Amino acid sequence: MSEPTTTSHTSQPDEQGTADRGSNRSHRPASTAFKNFVMSRWAPRAELGLTASPAAPYTVARRAALSERLPGQRLVIPAGSLKTRSNDTDYRFRPHSAFAHLTGLGTDQEPDAVLVLHPVEDGAGDGGSHHHAVLYVRPLAPRDNEEFYADARYGEFWVGARPSLADIETLTGIEARHIDELGDALAKDVGDGGVRLLVVTDADDAVESLVEELRLEAGEDEEALSDDALVEATSELRLIKDEYEIERMREAVARTIEGFAAVVRALPAAKEHRRGERVVETTFDGNARLEGNAVGYETIAASGEHATTLHWIRNDGEVRSGDVLLLDGGVEVDSLYTADVTRSLPVDGEYTDVQRKIYQAVLDAADAAFAVAKPGAKFRDVHAAAMEVIAARLEEWGFLPDGVTAADALGEDGQQHRRWMVHGTSHHLGLDVHDCAQARRELYLDGVLEPGMVFTIEPGLYFKADDLAVPEEFRGIGVRIEDDVLVTADGNENLSAALPRRPEDVETWMASLR
Questions:
Q1: Is the pTM higher than 0.85?
Q2: How big is the CA angle at 314 (ends 310 and 317), to the nearest 5 degrees?
Q3: 104, 240, 386, 500 — which has fewest CB within 10 A?
Q4: What backbone phi and psi angles, to 5 degrees, belong to 396?
């Protein structure tokens, strides 16, 4: 990897602060001759060829909904900043989900950008809303600016050409201004009797600090509306997906299913490698990077006993004949919408009798959850339906404590069945794998299902190798089946139904790929 270069220093080592010592390994020429030459004799820049994003018409409605909920407030939604991986290298950028939802920007667009919804008189804003949207961005620097060749984070020589302000407006349909104008724009009319600033927290520390500084200077009333109201609103807006979002979810699921097929083809290689789980992981993740933006979360490639660890992402174990491989993965497409799918696959292509018995119990629980996932039901009903099956099957197998029935276990003071499934059955899905996480309980766990909601159904059973409460033949087996579900007007649609679910269908599908 190329090293960012800096101008050489003449100070003695004991005079050099630690923050400047990264420059000790190399240096950038500082001569006037170099500067004049490196910034001259360039052909005109080619146009980036940007056109309006297909998300743009939908983001107008999303911003209007947010505006309606928080009229009169100045709403600040940062994209976030680049995050240091180590020393002077950064992680690949991903914008904050609230920013992506309200602007339509995806992939690695646009670090340090901030969407601001400025309050206006009723009906005078964008689309008749209470706000006018402005995107404050760091545009492409001209080639007679040192940023062009000297800035390793933003310079064109280092990271390629950034869009201009006009490009951003074409792409998003939102007015674009230079990020240097942000401070003055936020400060305007803030204070007693004026505009209240609300910021999406935990997105950009610098922007959050700027907002807090402006509040202190203006002496804002601490009892006024808090930032939580904006965080909550941007999360709850995503509980029901629009047509554009649903299509992106379909795309993410399709790419994810392709990744599962690639893993099945790679299983012979995985069995031969000392870290076969890494073969599984890199096969799936490679497909995600080729066909989408990345994975939506760290892939769980858990074989054998590792499948009983719910979030096993170390993925450094062997993939052995006779084991079940629990693969939990999701492709995040360029729009940043992600799938979240799990299958528990027999490494050799066929389940043993005990593996099939466990798998069928989990599948029956999933099917029970699907049966109640329709408009008018509560979100919590989906989990309850799955748990009734899990508890009944564990009672049938004699795994519950002596004298405890499935009905006893399902009671609030029981829950013994949850020893083998400590996680929930469902979570909302979208721009985040655990989407809408800041929504209020009454709209999430206690919320009523409505058309357009997308969530997972993912029951499981996990019998650890040292679990003395179950027969030996069950130990070391973990099974989870997870699908992505769209609530429709008259029921639901399994978005991931193209990936086989029944054990016999899984076996047939795996055989067809070998």
A1: yes
A2: 95
A3: 240
A4: -60, -40
